[in-house]
What we know:
The chain is an alpha/beta fold. It has helices at 9-18, 25-34, 53-66, 87-94, 117-133, 148-153, 164-171, 175-191, 207-213, 224-233, 235-246, and strands spanning 3-7, 39-42, 69-74, 98-101, 137-142, 158-162, 195-199, 217-222. Helix 2 runs parallel beside helix 3 (53-66), helix 7 runs antiparallel to helix 8 and helix 10 packs across helix 11 (235-246).
Amino acid sequence: MTVLSVNLNKIAVLRNSRGGSEPDLLRAAHTCLDAGAHGITVHPRPDARHTRSDDVLALAELTRGYGVEFNLEGNPFAPPRAGYPGFLALCELARPAQATLVPDGDAQLTSDHGFDFARDAESLAPLVAALRALGCRVSLFADTGADVARAAAIGAARVELYTGPYAEAFATGSAAAALPAYADTARAAAAVGLGVNAGHDLSQANLAAFLDAVPNVLEVSIGHALIGEALYEGLDATVRRYLAVLGPDSGNDSR
Ligand SMILES: CC(=O)[C@@H](O)[C@H](O)COP(=O)(O)O
Ligand SMILES: NCC(=O)COP(=O)(O)O
């Protein structure tokens, strides 16, 4: 079964644009979880462009209350700065069920590539170990064709396939050409004992074709498209539509 973790970064983008507290991130989280979403994701950027450390702590508590997964994403190599204690320190405070490590930088508009495990595995290894010691499941952001055996060797439990290129291909009618590389990477991950997550620019339009072609996707984290679609249909209805794509019985147990 594939579960849905709703990424709430974009609610915080709107909120921060006026400097107040609306739209309210926690209300949005409640709405998603009450609609049946299986978890909540945020990816606080060190430049605080959307979700902040205080949001992370509040969402950690909220998701614990629901008994659902909190997925915290971030770059473990980004140095701490005012308002951002660093990814590991944040995980120590929030204790997310899943920590997804992503090699991003401030200059990037959004995440746009996975790790190069041949280059990064050695420096990732102690961080993965530290996160596991905190009780977090560790997932590593990965491109198609990534050396997933190295990700498994350093103790990761999962990889998250970076689906941006798939979404672009889907939009231009060339999804069929893009999907085999995702399916191959998912199979390679499973063969070395890794679970497979997927995310970035997934949407109601492109999700089903991805899940049809790529085996054993355990979780999708979806934010940008979902929050945009919710402007038209409402957040509750939009989450339910995604759950319907995932399967007729999909949804958290608290619904
Ligand atoms: C890790 C990832 O794929 C991203 O999708 C990310 O969570 C989105 O971050 P932004 O909302 O900052 O673009
Ligand atoms: N890990 C991907 C994620 O959380 C959401 O990405 P997007 O749907 O905002 O592109």
